[in-house]
Amino acid sequence: MKLKNTLLLALSALAIQASAQESTYTISGHLEGLKDHWIYKGRDSAEVKNDRFSFTGKTAEPEMTQLYTKSDSRVYLVFFVDKNTTTTIEGKAASSGQAKITGPTAQADLNRLNALSKTIDAEKEKLYAEYEAASKAKDKDRLAAVEKKIDLIDQQSEAKSKEFIKQNPKSFVSAYQIKELEYSNSGETLEALFKGLDPSIQKSALGIKLDETIAIKKKTSVGKLVMEFSQPDTLGKPVSVSSFKGKYVLLDFWASWCGPCRGENPNVLKAYNQFKDKGFTVFSVSIDENREKWLKAVKEDQLPWTQVSDLKRKNAAAEQFGIHAIPSNFLLDPNGNIVAVNLRGDALLKKLEEVIK
């Protein structure tokens, strides 16, 4: 199941610019009824006056960006900017998701994709609201049912994205869509989609970065031997992934601040308790930077297995494994071979029941 912070992480990983050929872009926005005094774009901000705001910046090629507010109005917009062009936003703050956004060719392409996905996206929003309500009510049965519905709608959404990519090989939107598909698809699948892109997209800064990402992804495909790494545990003692050889291991990437990660921990704990005496364990890598918050989350979620983290802004293991969205995990067999990727909810239990006799 992909939640919003998953998308944010994926998009933030693609903030790519080539300074040698950069030119100016402009964002001009008008959201009727916008009460916030400031609106934000990454680390940049713009003052809102009479419901209007503007940004300028530099880019070398079409670039996906996001605008958001920090108040309860919850304005959040994803769109494209490009050099020597103006992206225009026109709408109402109360329904900012329906704002009309025009501008560069890439934005026109994104508008077409959004139109194709409109029905699916509307269903997603309903399911996210159901998920949030079930989560607040701590209704585990309802949560599980909604997660299954979200997984199904995600599959439909992916099918639309893949169709768009194949039909629009010269669009930067297609490259960004491949990046968004990274979490739930193999490196081989992503590579096939990438090779279908026009050479102009493949050779762009975004394309070069995407190619590098896919190369890492292929190293973590099912059937590959897990890459070796070592990080300090909660007591500062280095622990390597190879030290678990001889057991089935769930290599789990998470963080204390990641809501979906915390929501998934009970499922992982259930699997651990059920199979810990049958040659299974969990090896968790936190991408936290704050030691106290990390340890507090481990205690709160009652996670008894080995926990490690280098507590750096860019966790070395996460970079090595190309982790751009969490939670992410890899199920390893006793020889260290990857047998499954990103098992969530009941899928983890079912896979363990299959491989551990």
From TrEMBL:
GO biological process: cytochrome complex assembly
Signal sequence coordinates: 1-20
Protein location: Cell envelope
Domain of life, per lineage: Bacteria
Domain Thioredoxin: residue ranges: 220-357
Gene Ontology CC terms, in alphabetical order: cell envelope
Listed GO MF terms: antioxidant activity; oxidoreductase activity
Entry keywords, A to Z: Cytochrome c-type biogenesis, Disulfide bond, Redox-active center, Signal
Main localisation: other
Keyword Cell division: no
InterPro entries to which the protein is assigned, alphabetical: AhpC/TSA (IPR000866), DUF4369 (IPR025380), Thioredoxin-like_sf (IPR036249), Thioredoxin_CS (IPR017937), Thioredoxin_domain (IPR013766), Thioredoxin_ResA/DsbE_sf (IPR050553)
Name the record gives this protein: Peroxiredoxin
Record organism: Pedobacter cryoconitis
Native organism taxonomy: Bacteria, Pseudomonadati, Bacteroidota, Sphingobacteriia, Sphingobacteriales
